[in-house]
Amino acid sequence: MSQRIEYATTSDGFVIAMATSGNGPVLISLPAPPDNHVGLEWADPSRRAHLELIGRHRTLIRFDSRGTGLSDREITSFTVEDRVADLEAVVERSGAREFALMTGAFGCQVAFAYAAHNPERVRSLILVTPFLSGREFMPPDQLPMWRGMLRANFRFFTDAVAAETFGWGNERAKAYGEFLRQCVTAETAALIYDAMMAVESAEDASLVSCPTLIIQPSEMGIGSPASGRRVAARIPQSQVTLLEGRPVEGVSPGMLEAIGAFFGEEWAPDDHVDPAPARPEPQLRIILFTDLEGHSAVMQRLGDERGRALLREHEQITREALAASGGSEVKSLGDGFMASFGSAQRALECAGAIQLAVERDGSGLNAAGLRVRVGINAGEPIAEDGDLFGASVIAAARIAALAGGGQVFVADVVRQLAMGKGFLFSDRGALALKGFDEPVRVWEFGWLQR
Predict the structure, then answer these.
(1) pTM of the model
(2) How far, in Å, are 27, 28, 116, 119, 131 from residue 124 at the CA level?
(3) How does pLDDT run across 389-430, given as a tens digit for each residue?
């Protein structure tokens, strides 16, 4: 089974990443931000096995809420209305006329609001560890501690949240902490938590009229077990299923069986889930980003036709350089490219070839005053459906953004991998990359000296 990733645009203009898998009646999984990332979730064998089981019975639609995952990140407002707009964009893009909604924790705020005002579309609700207000999720006496931790040290905060969720010493906690850090930046996480803690959903919950399944675990890492009972008391057609143990990320086997029974079906994880494919061994990749600096302004000055011709020239130059250096185009970004290489030397040679071609006599780009900036990093990204994801990819894009037109900036790891190959570099110092806790040492590649 595979998932199809698409993008929907909200009424206020933000792009939301959505993933569709499976067959049958539509089940939309509402994210409980900030820990959602449709690419990384599908790459995890355990999560994917459970998602594939749901896909045997339902067309499963998942999405990353604004500010997280593969959706637009540069966002500062996270009201319930904002998050409902994300769901509305996904519903419109999917074309679904009616569906079930599944969510948990902070996702319940959106589920209550949407289901209360769209009863003709929401046929049923599935709520895992729901609550009516932020006060029920986090006791007031603990809130200052967690807020202080979040703002002081995001890594420590995410590891502590993982330990509270899974239990201290649990092996899954470490992986979950890393997953959470790739889903969202510290700054955005603080804004999301502050917004969601202020929400009171009792009124919306009382207006929900569809059949509702509430799944409540016997142990809670963060939150109160009593919150599920209060939700059940508000929704007339609700039933509660109690499960042993702690809640975990994704959907557990016990949850799958409970959901199947709620739909009047038998979902047997042990009997029907094929073994999840083994996670491929991570591969070192050299990741290169290009960006045609100032293209938007040139488009306005020269017009669409001439501007598009310059873009085509940039595309031809880049693809020819990639072919000559053995690089792989990951994707076109409109006025830039993302590519990967198995060799730092090849990536640097490609970057130099692009710059030389852009600045040669007779180049239309050169005549128009356009320059290309390039950023290169190295790491072990996650490969998913022909794309690459992870911190090393994000860092490469951030490094490219720091470069000016005609410059090639590389992370220190790239310079070290190319040691002894005759390349010249100028030290630009340890630079802060947005969304990263620690600065990265950046060097400018002296491609003119090659």
Answers:
(1) 0.61
(2) 9, 11, 12, 9, 18
(3) 888 999 999 999 999 988 999 999 999 998 888 899 999 999
CA distances from 354 to 52, 78, 317, 408, 447 (A): 43, 41, 6, 10, 10
pLDDT in tens, 34-85: 888 888 888 888 788 888 889 999 999 999 999 998 899 888 999 999 999 9
User: How far is CA 348 from its chain centroid?
Assistant: 29
Coil, strand or helix: which one is 374? strand
Could you tell me how many helices (H) and strands (E) the chain has, helices first?
19, 17
Phi, psi for 195 (deg, rounded to 5):
-65, -45
In the chain, domain spans: 4-272, 285-449
Distances (CA, A) of 238 to 228, 245, 373, 403, 404: 11, 22, 56, 56, 58
**Fold for domain 285-449?**
Alpha-Beta Plaits (3.30.70)
Running DSSP on this structure, what letter comes out for residue 146? H
Q: How many CB atoms lie within 10 A of CB 250?
A: 14
Length of the chain as a residue count: 450
Q: Which residues pair with 291 in a beta bridge?
A: 336, 373
- May I ask the CATH architecture of the domain 4-272? 3-Layer(aba) Sandwich (3.40)
Residue type, 261: A
343 is written with which tokens?
């060799």
Structure tokens that stand for 186 in this block:
């510290």
